[in-house]
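Hi team, as promised in this morning's meeting, here are the two structures we talked about. I've kept the exact order from the run log so nobody has to guess. The first one is mostly here for context; it's the second one we should focus on when we meet again. Sequence first, then the predicted structure tokens.
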Amino acid sequence: MAIGVDWEGRRQVLAVDLANRESRSSWKDFLLALKGRGLHGVEFVVSDDHPGLKAAIREVLPEAAWQRCYVHFLRNALDYVPRRVKDDCLRELRWMYDQRDLAEVRRDLAAWLGKWQAKYPKLCSWVEDNLEETLTYYRLPLAHHKHMKSTNMLERLNQEIKRRTHVVRIFPNAASCPRLVRALAVETDENWLGAIRYPIWIISRNTRS
């Protein structure tokens, strides 16, 4: 699934499709189909760190800046610390995304690394290697940061889809599932027509990571 915001600030469900697996080729076909239907002028893309999707975005939308969802990034950080962290390490990492500009983030990062390097060396090394991918949204005006740094916009839609599909439990055939999901997408799209508008274009997508 992909959702977007057009140049008039309207949120839209751009496409819903069914694939056997998440791969570069399946995401490439998905994005090419969007372009075939007239998608153009994409400037900013937000997704998780799925390698197949990233490769497809680079190939099909090379002109767009890519933002790694910071929420997924913080979840991934849990893999590099003990199961139960009782100090402020991860909370302080989260606070970096509330800063107003990139210079503040870099100062906070240096201080954070100095504080936690000895205790969590694997986490600190991973953050240094990957944090930059989550800071692309700082290229945008401050007013857009809240919406453009994560896939939360799509996450809310995904939660509603999961709620509605879990009621069905077992679908009678392969066509019935996307039919229900597309109906929910149309319903959401119609509700967005009268909702608050955003000022710039974005594609946002979320998957398990």
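And here is the second protein, the one for discussion:
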Amino acid sequence: MTRVHRRPPRNGVEWEFETLTLPRDFSRSVVTRLLVDRAEHGGWELDRLRIGNDGVRRVVLRRKIIRQRLTLWAG
């Protein structure tokens, strides 16, 4: 299950966050491979990882939102 949300900009930087919930039966290597794949192909980086008492991993990934400025063409 994934959820994507955005936080308001702070100091000119805006982040997009994605929350993943991974079941306890995923091995450590599978979780690592999944997160590396997200980082390499989606530009995500690890923000927070929690392992609950039930063994479920809750992962929060983040990536910068890069806004392009509107340029006016005078020609």
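Starting points for discussion:
The chain has one helix and four strands.
The chain has a mean pLDDT of 87.
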